[in-house]
């Protein structure tokens, strides 16, 4: 990352924003949400009986993790599907989130190591 010497004047907000690649930043944000949400599910959720190809997930989460999980699910929910069926929308978002996390973790050029984010 580029940093200016301390004796140079600070850049204005528009200058700083113009240096940011919004696509790369958005993709990194989605990857982080997918990994965080999937890690929460893996740690706290017990799967119930399978119905066809869908598994019923049950859990009681600490408030902070519940908030992160809901935000992650919101990022992966299809906005065209806004509630008629909130449970189905959440289930689809969880599937997309987990697939995105798996793709991130199995990508050969990823920025994580076995010990965590580098």
Task: Describe the 3D structure.
The chain has 118 residues and is of the alpha+beta class. Among the domains are: 34 residues, no CATH class; 46 residues, no CATH class. It is built from four helices and four strands; from the N terminus they run H-H-E-E-H-H-E-E. The strands form two sheets. It has a two-stranded antiparallel ribbon with strand order 1-2. A two-stranded antiparallel ribbon has the order 3-4. Strand 3 and strand 4 form a beta hairpin. Helix 3 packs across helix 4.
For this entry, give a set of tags:
13% strand, 118 residues, alpha+beta
**How big is the Rg?**
18 Å
| Total helical segments | 4
Specify the structural class: alpha+beta
Strand order in space, largest sheet: 1-2
Q: What is the string of SSEs from the N terminus onward? A: HHEEHHEE
Helical fraction: 40-55%
* Shape field: elongated
- List how many beta strands DSSP finds: 4
The proportion of residues in beta strands is: 5-15%
Largest sheet: 2 strands, antiparallel
- The poorly predicted ranges are 112-118
Rounded average pLDDT? 78
What is the terminal-to-terminal distance? 15 Å
Give a short summary of the structure.
The chain is α+β, with helices and mostly antiparallel strands and 118 residues long.
Layout of secondary structure:
Blueprint: H1 13-18, H2 22-44, E1 46-51, E2 54-58, H3 63-76, H4 86-106, E3 112-113, E4 116-117
Antiparallel strand pairs: 1-2, 3-4
Helix pairs in contact: 2-3, 2-4, 3-4
């Amino acid at each position: 990352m580029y940093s200016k010497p301390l004796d140079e004047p600070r850049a204005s907000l528009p200058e700083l924003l113009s240096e940011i690649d919004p696509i790369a930043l958005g993709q990194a944000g989605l990857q982080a949400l997918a990994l965080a949400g999937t890690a929460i599910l893996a740690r706290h959720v017990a799967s119930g009986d399978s119905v066809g190809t869908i598994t019923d997930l049950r859990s009681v989460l600490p408030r902070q993790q519940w908030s992160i999980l809901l935000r992650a699910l919101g990022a992966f929910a299809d906005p065209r599907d806004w509630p008629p069926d909130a449970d189905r929308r959440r289930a689809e978002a969880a599937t997309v989130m987990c697939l995105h996390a798996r793709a991130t973790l199995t990508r050969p050029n990823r920025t994580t190591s076995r010990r965590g984010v580098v």
